[in-house]
Write a structure and sequence with these properties.
The structure is a homodimer. By secondary structure, chain A is of the alpha/beta class. Chain A is 40% helix and 14% strand. Chain A contains 15 helices and 17 strands. In chain A, strands 3, 5, 6, 7, 8, 9, 10, 11 and 12 form a 9-stranded mixed beta sheet that branches. In chain A, strands 13-14-17-16 form a 4-stranded antiparallel beta sheet. The interface between A and B is large, with 60 and 60 residues. Chains A, B: Keywords: Aminotransferase, DNA-binding, Pyridoxal phosphate, Transcription, Transcription regulation, Transferase.
């Protein structure tokens, strides 16, 4: 552990107020301009790149930085934030900052959005054709390496265990396929969900759990319960394309709120929008491992968001398909801060337990009766057998063991993919560093169109990616793409990312030559 | 076979123009007033009640009636229609009329609706609370004998075969529960449906089959594709309460079109409505074994309905959960007459194959792309497993064998229940005689409220029925109820119907005493 790590004297600009600190070899670097905190952060980056501060090392405390460099509290704090934002440091609660796992080479973090300007006015969503075109084109190349999805490879889910439980249930319950199921869900499954909600920081009675066909149906029901065609719904930007399709299919307008790749929806931008625009019928948020950014809202932001929506009387719909894939277990749901039933919680087992069970659920606070009515009218109860299987996975502890393993694997896959992207993608690329899940958000160099990358990667390289154009009703993310890491890292994946990086480099060069 | 059966001379009114015919014993009866055809029909009823004409006997032809009674063609034809409407005769194509199976005692057929008056203007549906109250009350008596549903008992479905196919599929396909399924449905299942549609009189390419969560989701998607909140939708009256709930949940208005217990939706009443009311966004019909009436539209009516809707450019949505439960196999769907893609066909395997698979499908003609989009946005693809099981049932021929058996059983159950109702229910009761399925529509004696029967039957007798108030947005069917025959007839069912009949008799007496 290196408590006093700092750049050596030779790295510091002449005339700076930064004092040298002993204990590290000199790391040479270019002379820098810009504000003091940026210059100091750049020096520390070089120290870390050179390996003088290694992954897992404790980073100097703010007080140590103040003392060692003779800088103000504000400057020292900004140095830490700057390095954290760029993915060099991670904050651990009550322990300070630590150096994150180093990469062979690094790419800067994806840009933070502007949050102090008023978000652009809401628009009707007209995205379905664009998304359908992408999906139709994907389907013409079914053998492409799939780095465009958001679901882990089948081998990462507990297939044998699930099939064995399903087979046993079929043997044990002769009327499993021939009897009508229970309204709103199977008792044991609703019980299991009720117990499990405690780890997300809230309580829900089994009777208030309504089982759905994935979180997709849950979010549909939530929106149908609180909004009418023509209404405006505030969503994250970028957002999961499935949400945009739901809004389009319901004739709702999307108000895209800037969202940080690190800490999620900008509460301040939402506040501005709520104060400026007429009536916002609902806010839809993925607070944990946002798709496509992978951001996680810190607790303070979650609390502020719930309070803001409560103050304005706006229903807050949270979509939680990924929470249990976070590196840190037991993240809290927004529902944990709900005091007046204003939060509608939607969750799914598709990504975390089994894509083939198509199980989700909803608990809808003040709109519980209306959501129950809508679900009954829309598709009746879910099949019983997937609920029995999932309930037994949860009750036996097998689900928790599976999750621990899945998290570890996804982290390894994600970090190996990120390393490869850093190695192979050209300068000008920026990369998100989510703390869980299996997707990475990539900003491409200036002038490179993700739609172009998508098409050429599929046709020429046999690689499927998700172009940024899918994640907004605007063209705001035409230069971004979502890359996923669904399977254990392999030479084939390494090679695919190498070829993808080369393609991006060619397109970047062509754009620079225009 | 008795070709020349007719009432004997003594049964005929003095001064009538009806000539006696030899061959039958005199059957005494009260002197009758009313038009000639009614008096003649009444005489034939007495002949049949006395057993002089027995079940299966050929009824005199129209020409024979004309000759024997010296009546006009119009009168002779009306006699046959009157007796057919009342359930005494059945028409067999190209063979004339035959005496239906006689009952120990008979009840008159449920009344035919008035079809020449303009249907009442469309109303927003506000039925959910009424239906919820019924369902909630049912749930407080879970052990009641269930004569209120529309699904056969689990034992009537091929449970063992289904579970065995499911188990084999689980063993054979290791990623069955862990892989994402195919958009819009599993290929083998869509293929099986495509082949099977031929027996309903139409062709559909596998690519145009969209698999849904039962017909409920299919009808939802169909209505969402063609109508907006506030629009008017023409439906049958009485209608399946689930359809009324769908309309309510989508903010649609219901225009209730008179529907015959024998031959379904009144095409003439619909035509009147289309000519008189502003814009009807869609027509929803259950052409085969309508729920709750059990009516089957004759082919000529089906053709006329499709042509009428095509002429007016109104989307025609057909809901087909029951067709394959008809006594006559291979009834045609409305889709068989569709020439311009104006018919949206919705079907389900819940009632015919397995309530626990929750499988339905839709093919949407001109609205195919929109329905595909809505389904994707609403709940994505269905689970793969049930589709594999159903596809294998169909492909192996096991489904057809099951259906043949199920039809026979349901017919026996239905007729035994109808007999019991005839034995036990008081005068003033009228009873439908559907040619398939498992539900019977019962009109109660004057002054008897079906809601009252429902409540007292449940609380006092432990019997669940479906009150007529569930089947219309109006109170038009407050004096009707739907009784189902889900299980093989037994002493317990006989006893339940006896007690139910006694309850109705007590309520009828009380009403008469008011």
């Amino acid at each position: 552990m290196t408590l006093s790590a700092s750049p050596s004297e030779t790295d510091l600009d002449a005339g700076s107020d930064l004092a040298p600190v002993a204990g590290h070899a000199s790391v040479s670097g270019p002379r820098q301009d810009g504000p003091l905190y940026q210059r100091l952060a750049a020096q520390y980056r070089r120290v870390m790149t050179a390996g003088a501060l290694k992954a897992g090392d404790r980073f100097p405390s703010v007080r140590a930085l103040m003392r060692q460099h003779g800088v103000s509290l504000a400057t020292a704090t900004r140095v830490c934030h700057e390095l954290e934002d760029a993915g060099w440091l991670e904050a651990r609660p009550r322990s300070g900052y630590f150096v994150r796992r180093q990469r062979g080479a690094t790419l800067p973090a994806v840009a933070e959005p502007e949050t102090s300007a008023l978000p652009a006015a809401a628009q009707y969503v007209g995205l379905h054709e664009r998304i359908s075109a992408v999906i139709a084109m994907q389907q013409r190349y079914p053998d492409a390496m799939n780095l465009g999805g958001a679901t882990a490879a089948p081998a990462l889910y507990p297939g044998e265990r699930l099939q064995s439980l399903a087979t046993k249930a079929l043997r044990r319950e002769p009327a499993l396929l021939t009897a009508v199921g229970a309204d709103h869900g199977h008792a044991a499954f609703r019980q299991a969900i009720s117990r499990r909600a405690l780890s997300a920081g809230f309580t829900v009675a089994p009777a208030d759990v309504i089982v759905t066909h994935g979180a997709i149906e849950a979010v549909n029901l939530a929106l149908r319960a609180v909004a009418q065609a023509g209404d405006t719904v505030a969503i994250e930007s970028p957002a999961f394309f499935g949400l945009l399709q739901i809004l389009e299919s319901l004739g709702l307008r999307a108000l895209e709120i800037p969202t940080s790749p690190r800490h999620g929806l900008s509460v301040e931008a939402l506040e501005l929008a709520l104060a400026s625009y007429e009536r916002i019928a609902a806010v839809v948020v993925v607070p944990n491992l946002q798709n496509p950014l992978g951001s996680i809202m810190p607790d303070a932001r979650k609390a502020a968001l719930v309070a803001l929506c409560a103050r304005h009387g706006v229903p807050l719909i949270e979509d939680e398909p990924y929470r249990e894939l976070a590196d840190t277990p037991s993240l809290k749901a927004l529902k944990a801060w709900d005091r007046d039933g204003g939060v509608i919680h939607c969750a799914s087992f598709n990504k975390v337990l089994a894509p083939g069970l198509r199980l989700g659920w909803i608990t809808a606070g003040r709109w519980q009766a209306r959501v129950a009515m809508l679900k009954f009218a829309q598709s009746r109860h879910n099949e019983t057998w997937p609920q029995i299987v999932a309930a037994e996975m949860i009750a036996s502890g097998a689900y928790d063991r599976h999750l621990a393993q899945l998290r570890t694997r996804l982290r390894a896959q994600r970090e190996a993919c990120a390393d490869a992207i850093c190695r192979y993608f050209p300068p000008g690329t920026r990369l998100g560093t989510p703390e869980g899940g299996l997707v990475l958000w990539v900003e491409l160099p200036t002038g490179v169109s993700s739609q172009r990358v998508f098409e050429r990667a599929l046709v020429e390289e046999g690689i499927r990616v998700a172009p940024g154009t899918m994640f907004s009703n605007s063209d705001r993310y035409a230069h971004c793409m979502r890359l996923s890491c669904p399977a254990p890292f392999s030479a084939a994946i390494d090679d695919a990312l190498r070829r993808l990086g080369a393609l991006v480099a060619r397109l970047a060069n062509a754009a620079a030559g225009d």
